[in-house]
Design brief:
10 helices, binds flavin-adenine dinucleotide, alpha/beta
Length: about 425
């Protein structure tokens, strides 16, 4: 012990107790490891608390795509539309956008679909099991999703993407007329077609899932330390984790799962990772605001409506504005106004607004793999729009790495060093 510092010994430290860190801890616990969870806010208090609750296993088309490059200019014209860049952040985000553009080229896009498909297959196998372990399987709702289209042109434009999903073995049904109105009564007349995806699931509430995983972990001997990590460094075959107030955690192994805030910790380990945040907004209305049968996706408007135990959550959108600019809740209100046009009779009063920080890499794939400085520090962040969906798969892969087992799928598309050309 150095003078003035307290040293805590740990077997494996998981930094970040969002859905990714919690899932990693679940799989390490199952391997018999003694886990120390470190989070500055507690269990599931950031992005993982307020998302749309979708287990979007069929969502294999990366955001970085030729299609988005075509749509983006139109979206950017509307400052409250599905995609916006805060003027005060335009310069900082420019390099990330350049990489996003490169990742949207056809060959990169095809490789990204393949990598996402592999991860999603594992996710679909693992997520339910993880909930079972935490006695939380009742939180899973396997009722599918409905992606709706306003008019024939929007429906036709979606078919290219459905063809790719069909090739990946994903089941879906294009629906019209009575079948469509049966699946969701109360849709506006402008909605003429939809695609029903039975494999899509939701959770009853994403915060409840985090709470249930956290409860199970703490009841099983995992220790939670509420503290902010300043630096992570390799140290004589172990990992030195410096937290606030002169405390040092000395762990055999560590996982960095600090979501949108992971860039700084990774740079201390020699990895320059182009992690940015895609900020998203929503409003959670009282449960009786609308009789929503399942999650509805309004793709052209960039938002979804989800029935949760905590209410009807309406939101989405992407705002590139970094971690520090204040929220612009006009975005939440604007999506609500659009939703009330599309869901006849939606009651928009009494809602709670929220903003969250999606941790996003320009190629729409997460970072899962060892740090440059040490194999004993493993990264698990950057899941963008799909962190809940890919959480259990990530937990399994990270635990396999730390236990020296062969990973269930090849990790090469997700490794941090895929960005080394930009370093
Ligand atoms: C509007 C919106 C809707 C979404 N909908 C969906 C959806 O339907 N389905 C889906 O799969 N995904 C969805 N997502 C994405 C998903 O929410 C994220 O990918 C996921 O929550 C990321 O989880 P995480 O654990 O990496 O990050 P977080 O939940 O943000 O957790 C990171 C944790 O790290 C902690 N931390 C950070 N820095 C430090 C530090 N230095 N020291 C200690 N602790 C630290 C934070 O306190 C936090 O608890 C949505 C996101 C948004 C914004």
């Amino acid at each position: 012990m150095t003078q003035g510092t307290e040293t805590i010994e740990a077997d494996v430290a998981v930094i970040g107790a969002g859905i990714i860190g919690l899932s990693v801890a679940m799989y390490l616990l199952a391997e018999g490891r003694k886990v120390l969870l470190i989070d500055r806010k507690g269990i599931g208090q950031e992005t993982s608390a307020g998302n749309a609750g979708a287990l979007a296993f069929s969502d294999i088309l990366p955001l970085a795509s030729p299609r988005i490059l075509r749509q983006a200019p139109r979206w950017l014209i509307d400052p409250l539309g599905p995609l916006a860049i805060r003027p005060g952040y335009a310069l900082q985000i420019a390099p990330w956008l350049m990489r996003f553009g490169l990742a949207s080229r056809p060959a990169a896009y095809v490789a990204s679909i393949e990598a996402t498909t592999q991860l999603m297959r594992l996710a679909a196998l693992e997520f339910h099991q993880m909930l079972v372990q935490a006695n939380a399987s009742h939180m899973l709702r396997q009722d599918g999703s409905l992606q709706v289209y306003e008019g024939e042109a929007e429906f036709q434009a979606s078919l290219e993407g459905w063809k790719v999903r069909h090739q990946a073995g994903i089941e879906f049904e294009h629906v019209h007329g009575v079948r469509l109105r049966d699946l969701q009564p109360g849709l506006a007349g402008s909605i003429t077609a939809a695609t029903f995806v039975p494999q899509w699931a939701t959770v009853s509430d994403p915060l409840d899932v985090c709470t249930a995983l956290g409860r199970h972990l703490l009841n099983s001997g995992v220790v939670l330390r509420k503290d902010e990590v300043q630096r992570v460094l390799p140290n004589e075959g172990c990992v030195r984790i410096e937290v606030l107030q002169g405390v040092v955690v000395q762990a055999k192994q560590a996982v960095i799962a600090t979501g949108a805030w992971s860039r700084q910790l990774a740079s201390g380990l020699g990895n320059v990772i182009p992690l940015e945040t895609e900020r998203g907004y929503n409003t959670t209305l009282p449960p009786d605001a609308f009789n929503l049968k399942r999650q509805i996706i309004f793709g052209a408007h960039g938002f979804v409506a989800t029935p949760l135990s905590s209410g009807i959550r309406i939101g989405g959108a992407v705002e590139l504005g970094g971690l520090k600019l204040p929220p612009n809740f006009k975005r939440s209100s604007d999506m609500l106004t659009k939703a009330s046009r599309l869901l006849t009779g939606l009651r928009t009063e009494g809602g709670r607004q929220w903003m969250g920080f999606r941790p996003s890499l320009p190629d729409s794939l997460p970072v899962i793999g060892p740090s440059l400085a040490s194999k004993q520090v493993v990264y698990a962040f950057g899941h963008g729009h799909l962190g809940l969906t890919q959480s259990a798969a990530t937990g399994k892969l990270v635990s396999e790495l730390l236990m020296g087992k062969k990973p269930s799928i090849s990790l090469s598309p997700y490794l941090a060093d895929r960005f080394k050309l930009f370093n």
